[in-house]
């Protein structure tokens, strides 16, 4: 694990990898702690992310950047007043929930799918979707494969301990495909094995594979995505179970980014409101004195999110969309009025 200091931001950037033989989970009971008070005492929000391009990485200066990193910053802006007061730790999927329950991180992002088993059986709670995705497959461009059904008996590189691996096992069984899983401990190892052609296909979330295709090979045309979506993957942060207050804080910070987009509120417009603005907009802009009371926050919490990090559209476009190297389409991740699936609740 490496440590980097700079610009008022504290962040740790390393991998915790699963060691063979330690995947049996002990009985994990969440500690009865007030996470918000712990965060304030620590002076930073500790967030687990993974290394998927566009979601979690570092820029040329070593500063953590990405879609999930920005949501961590939004949380820090709301609760600490400073979006740079974050500690980013890169933890793989199999270990991030253990780290949450042990109190080693405050929030776990990093391509974590909302599932029944995770929500009820691991001492953690899914907060809210921040990105809606689906499982996909990628092959080398010279492959004759056009669908999963044609992959009978072939090798698929997949990260162990993920819904991707579980979905593939289920599909292989139900369709009689006899797929051979080539398991990797990390997303990096999975990609490297695909590059070495240890497998004919690689599987992951569509956005993840598209990001790798755009950033990890000099000629993206050498890799091809199959036109098939294998699963539903609502992605977003998890928190440790047992602290409803912290759960609500994280959820409403996420909601605030989408509500701000709904009203066209961003860093440039938040100071130009007139007296006729709606009560919801006034609350977002910090003009309602008790707007943060129920969360244990001050009236300016949502305003800081908008000013220091941006609304949902800002976060998406900067890291994943047309303002990024990935140039992903928003698709399902648009607001409902724009043909997407996000329908934020009222800030009332």
UniProtKB/TrEMBL annotation:
It comes from the Bacteria. Gene3D superfamilies: Periplasmic binding protein-like II. CDD domains: PBP2_BztA. Residues 44-268 form the Solute-binding protein family 3/N-terminal domain. Belongs to the bacterial solute-binding protein 3 family. It comes from Geopseudomonas guangdongensis. GO terms for biological process: amino acid transport. This is Amino acid ABC transporter substrate-binding protein, PAAT family. Keywords: Signal, Transport.
